Amino acid sequence: MTEAIRLGGVGLTLGGHRFLFDLAVPAGSFTAVTGPSGSGKSTLFNIIAGFETTDAGRVLLGGQDMETVLPGKRPVSLVFQDNNLFAHLDLFTNVALGVSPSLRLDAAGRVLVSEALSRVGLAGFEKRMPATLSGGERQRAAFARALVRKRPIILLDEPFAALDPELRHQMGGLLAALHRDEGFTVLMITHDPDEARRLADRFVLIEGGRVVREGEIADLRAPRVR
Ligand SMILES: Nc1ncnc2c1ncn2[C@@H]1O[C@H](COP(=O)(O)OP(=O)(O)OP(=O)(O)O)[C@@H](O)[C@H]1O
């Protein structure tokens, strides 16, 4: 299998908690990351994205060792629940930041932004300010910004937690379509087993700072084998 992500004995201590991650994620897969609160799911994402400094092991993304690669240079986009749009910038500009942090966009860059906004159902929203958008629209904008970054790995940290069930379902459908069309590798933290089963093809269960189970999504609820 081609691996998008491999963590080998990756260790880190934070506030008295020891984390030790071993994990292999096939390229193009959609993995639901599950586990109790405080088990280390967000920490796993921060390690992959390069926001935490580890003290053991290796992180490989797309087969490349990330030891000396800064977060901004990693082949990764992160999308959070509170989707971090800049309140003082309109939607076009917020998404454009995904193309060029200095906002120096050529014609092709501007087309990329417009296409991404269309793709997530926000054509015509270019001049809108984040405060005038609904929660679902803000989440769509965050997806558009991830899309224009063109990174092969997308990490979603409870992206729909703030949305009501119907919108959650709708946004899940959009995410599934984007995954199918773009072929990126998705890891999504979710506490909802039904959502995991609907969207993902694999799961990872984290407990006490370690991956304790992983496999096909159909086995998500099977009893744990030690
Ligand atoms: N920078 C830090 N300093 C100290 N402790 C930390 C730090 N970051 C995380 N922790 C602790 O590590 C543990 C794992 O945190 P993490 O956010 O990864 O859990 P999680 O599985 O994502 O939880 P949740 O589902 O509640 O979001 C928690 O007990 C948290 O308090």
From TrEMBL:
Keywords: ATP-binding, Cell inner membrane, Cell membrane, Membrane, Nucleotide-binding, Translocase, Transport. The keyword Nucleotide-binding applies. GO terms for molecular function: ATP binding. It comes from the Bacteria. Residues 5-225 form the ABC transporter domain. InterPro entries: AAA+_ATPase, ABC_SmlMolc_Importer, ABC_transporter-like_ATP-bd, ABC_transporter-like_CS, P-loop_NTPase. Belongs to the ABC transporter superfamily. This is Thiamine transport system ATP-binding protein.
